[in-house]
């Protein structure tokens, strides 16, 4: 192909590439990659057929510009991984404090229901926890080690099983928002009632203090994660019920993205809770001061990262 024909065939395409770079519309890494591949092919053809020509020089400069843009975008993407955790996610939670409060209140109400139901009906805990678990725990109490259940599994196997289960429960609370906020509310009620029945069961054996001290080593993070996942579910549910000035479809998509980001923000919490339950909770006779340090440290982190930091960043933004 003659050089003039080659220029005519591709001039409009190259011009469009230039405009993409000039208009900063190259934020999509896939578009940049496709662009670079196509330009590289055109440059290789020019080098083979029109060596030393103005066409080769132009395509080489354009390819360098695209390559530089790809490199810059990758650096920004790496930087965004940091700002996601330090700025973007906290600022998102700053706008979702109402949903966090609603989720917390529903969960606490459910715990109260579980306690009252167990007090009024001794068989209630068996309906909720199952006969096998209740009988095993009673046997452990009789043997003088009421929380021996945390010592029976191998640590690593327990970690993976617990972490996967925590992810499943929290994602279920989030996904239930697709059934509107009522769906998430039902999930919070189910889990809260279970916790209430569990606590009252130990209270009947005068073991509530020991149970709280041991269980909340991991429960501080685990139960907090359920509340936060419930808030994510409320975000999705409210996006469907109350679209505001958006169309219902657009409101749902927007709320779904926000809720999913909130769940992603819980991943380190899932991992930490799984590690504590698998490797630390089993030491039921650890000093009281150490247990309290872990428990209050966990709650302090939750309050700092999901409440104090978001509100501080929002105030200063």
Structure summarized in a few sentences:
The protein has 317 residues and is mainly α. 83% of the residues lie in helices and 0% in strands. The chain has helices spanning 3-22, 29-49, 54-94, 97-120, 124-129, 131-142, 155-175, 181-204, 208-241, 248-264, 267-279, 288-316.
Word description of this protein:
- By secondary structure, this protein is mainly alpha-helical.
- It has two domains: 3-86; 95-316, no CATH class.
- The chain contains twelve helices and no strands.
- The longest helix has 41 residues, at 54-94.
- The protein is elongated and about 95 Å long.
- The protein starts with a helix and ends with a helix.
- The mean pLDDT is 85.
Spans of at least 5 consecutive residues with low confidence: none
Helix coverage percent: over 70%
SS content category: mainly alpha
Largest sheet: none
**Number of discrete helical segments:** 12
Distance between the termini: 58 Å
Number of domains: 2
Strand content: under 5%
Shape: elongated
Radius of gyration, whole Å: 28 Å
Number of beta strands: 0
Mean pLDDT: 85
SSE string: HHHHHHHHHHHH
Question: How is the topology of this model organized?
Answer:
Blueprint: H1 3-22, H2 29-49, H3 54-94, H4 97-120, H5 124-129, H6 131-142, H7 155-175, H8 181-204, H9 208-241, H10 248-264, H11 267-279, H12 288-316
């Amino acid at each position: 192909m003659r050089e003039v024909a080659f220029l005519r065939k591709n001039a409009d395409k190259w011009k469009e590439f230039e405009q993409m770079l000039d208009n900063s519309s190259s934020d999509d890494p896939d578009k940049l990659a496709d662009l670079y591949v196509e330009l590289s092919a055109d440059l290789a053809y020019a080098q083979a057929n029109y060596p030393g020509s103005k066409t080769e020089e132009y395509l080489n400069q354009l390819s360098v510009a695209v390559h530089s843009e790809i490199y810059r975008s990758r650096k920004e993407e790496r930087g965004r991984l940091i700002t996601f955790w330090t700025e973007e996610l906290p600022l998102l939670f700053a706008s979702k404090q109402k949903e966090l409060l609603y989720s917390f209140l529903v969960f606490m109400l459910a715990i109260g229901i579980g306690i009252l139901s167990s007090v009024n009906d001794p068989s209630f805990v068996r309906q909720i926890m199952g006969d096998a678990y209740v009988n095993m725990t009673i046997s452990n109490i009789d043997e003088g080690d009421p929380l021996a259940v945390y010592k029976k599994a191998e640590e690593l196997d327990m970690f993976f099983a617990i972490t996967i289960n925590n992810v499943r429960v929290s994602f279920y609370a989030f996904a239930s928002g697709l059934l509107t906020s009522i769906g998430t509310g039902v999930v919070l009620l189910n889990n809260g009632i279970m916790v209430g029945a569990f606590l009252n069961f130990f209270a009947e054996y005068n073991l509530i203090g020991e149970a709280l001290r041991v269980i909340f080593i991991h429960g501080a993070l685990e139960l907090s994660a359920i509340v936060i996942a419930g808030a994510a579910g409320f975000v999705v549910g409210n996006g469907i019920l109350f679209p505001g000035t958006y169309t219902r479809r657009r409101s749902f998509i927007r709320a779904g993205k926000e809720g999913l980001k909130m769940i992603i923000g819980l991943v380190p919490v899932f991992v930490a809770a799984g590690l504590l339950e698998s490797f630390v909770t089993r030491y039921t006779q650890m000093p009281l001061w150490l247990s309290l340090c872990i428990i209050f440290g966990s709650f302090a982190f939750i309050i700092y990262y999901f409440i104090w930091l978001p509100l501080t960043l929002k105030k200063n933004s």
